[in-house]
Amino acid sequence: MKRTPGLSLIADNLARVRDRLSRAVQRSGRRPEEVGLLGVTKTVPAGHVQEAWDCGLRNFGENKVQEALEKISRLKTSRSMEGAAWHMLGHLQTNKAAKAADVFNMIQSLDSLRLAGFLDKAAKKQGRPLSCLVEVKVSEEPSKTGASPDGLEQFLTELNQFSHLRVEGLMTVAPYFDHPEKTRPFFKRMRALFDRHKRLFQSEHPILSMGMSQDFEVAIEEGATLVRLGTALFGERRAAP
Ligand SMILES: *Cc1c(COP(=O)(O)O)cnc(C)c1O
């Protein structure tokens, strides 16, 4: 089969990523099915998302509700991506909560009780539970969002009051370092929080979402169950408009 050069690049990238991922899994004495791969498609055109789907990728992440809405509806009218799971990764404002609950299969950026209230109400209206991860802020960078590690136990306990939210685990965006090894202490800290609060997650297989293109192998070594890759799969992103 002949592919356009730009698109076959995605197939190559995916093969390379899968290889690195499975080696990291082996190195850490874990099983391959313990670590999921999510393709981050923010700023990536719908055609390239379709190509990744054709190569077998099934989980996708976006960081803006509007962009996701447009992309997903475009993909629905072209070839089918029935069965794809869409994850919301970006900070979510309460006025977009209802739309997000409608579009996404999982919200990974749950970081306040107020947002939880809006999401729960929207999920109730749709008559289905909404899966969420609590985003935790493990670094001091002011630009980062997320719940504080100190109040995590209380936050998770309070989230149990929402009948239509299913809190399945934790997510974090670690600080960026040129050397991925420097990220390790942040992943270690997340893993400890994850283990400590496991009984509060409403899933038989709780999710620890951490690790991006730069540092996903370190994240896997430290216990990530889901890595989120953008540039490693789709190439450098265009600058945000
Ligand atoms: C953009 C983004 C990613 C992917 O980043 P890459 O470095 O391109 O792999 C992962 N997680 C979140 C929350 C993001 O916003």
Please describe what this structure looks like.
The chain is 40% helix and 16% strand. The protein contains 9 helices and 8 strands. It has an 8-stranded parallel β-sheet. β4, α5 (113-126) and β5 form a beta-alpha-beta unit. The chain binds pyridoxal-5'-phosphate (PLP). The site of pyridoxal-5'-phosphate (PLP) has 13 residues, from β8 and α9.
Which characteristics define this entry?
241 residues, alpha/beta, 9 helices, 40% helix, 16% strand, globular, binds pyridoxal-5'-phosphate
Q: Which SSEs are present, and which pair or pack?
A:
Blueprint: H1 5-27, E1 36-40, H2 46-54, E2 59-62, H3 65-77, E3 85-88, H4 97-103, E4 106-110, H5 113-126, E5 130-135, H6 152-159, E6 165-171, H7 184-196, E7 207-209, H8 216-221, E8 226-229, H9 231-234
Parallel strand pairs: 1-2, 1-8, 2-3, 3-4, 4-5, 5-6, 6-7
Helix pairs in contact: 4-5
Q: Which runs of at least 5 residues are low in confidence (pLDDT < 50)?
A: none
* Major sheet summary line: 8 strands, parallel
Helix content: 40-55%
Shape type: globular
Distinct ligands: pyridoxal-5'-phosphate
Task: Output the radius of gyration.
Answer: 17 Å
Can you describe this structure in just a few lines?
The chain is an alpha/beta fold. The chain is built from 9 helices and 8 strands. 40% of the residues lie in helices and 16% in strands.
